[in-house]
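Trying the structure run again after the queue cleared.
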Amino acid sequence: MDVEYARTRNLASGPTLAGRTIALIGCGTIGSHLARFLVQSGAGAGNGGRLLIVDTDVLSAGNLGRHWLTAQHIGASKAKACAKELKAQFIGVSVHALVDDAMTRLETLTGYDLVIDATGEEAVSRALNAELVARRPSAPDSLFVWLVGHGAAAQALFLPGVDDGKGCLACHRPHGTWPSILHEDAITDQLPVACGEAAFTPYGVAAPVIAAGLACRMAMEWTRGRVYPSLRSIRVDLASTNEIRDEDVLPRSDCPACGKEH
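Done. Tokens:
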């Protein structure tokens, strides 16, 4: 079997993710699907190609409704299990797992061509955004992807490793602001679960796959040299969301990460 042909036959003509180094932070409901999409788009293949999956969590039974991994992986490291499955399904790819806090491994991660945050955790995303902005112009390019509300919409933001005059994640999401894509009466509360498990945000199985697809599409644009506009949105639940345009994020002078007044 021609492995390279099987991997690339469905890709449009032009550059793929092969030969690039990509670090994916978060192997949850979005990240697990995104890891597979990235490999199918060439990540981990080619000369020097490498995909690193970073996550500290283990798979639980409660994850199975939305995660790419299956019941046989319950109790296993999400990052390690995902890397193992990808290497089994896509022969010859360079996929590796790192079971550690991404913020303690920034020196390692900033050596990659592209860093993708798929954690969906506000504190992690903001901290990573601030660190990457502070490391400019030697920072890697980065991509943030998340779900809004109860999976009502998927959004993604591209942040280049050099200052291009556009806003960062903190410019788009100032502390305490309501997402412009959400209706004012949209439900965003987390739900309690069984004893010993953390509260979670309920949403359908399609939402994380849509978010992963959006991020993969932007990653493919990145490898072809231009990601425009920087902020993208896909409405999943039309009843809970407002129609907004894809557009570049405007910089804010009062931004705690990239603004000039701090």
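Strands lie at 21-25, 50-54, 95-98, 114-117, 141-148, 153-159, 231-235. Worth checking whether this holds up in the mutant runs.
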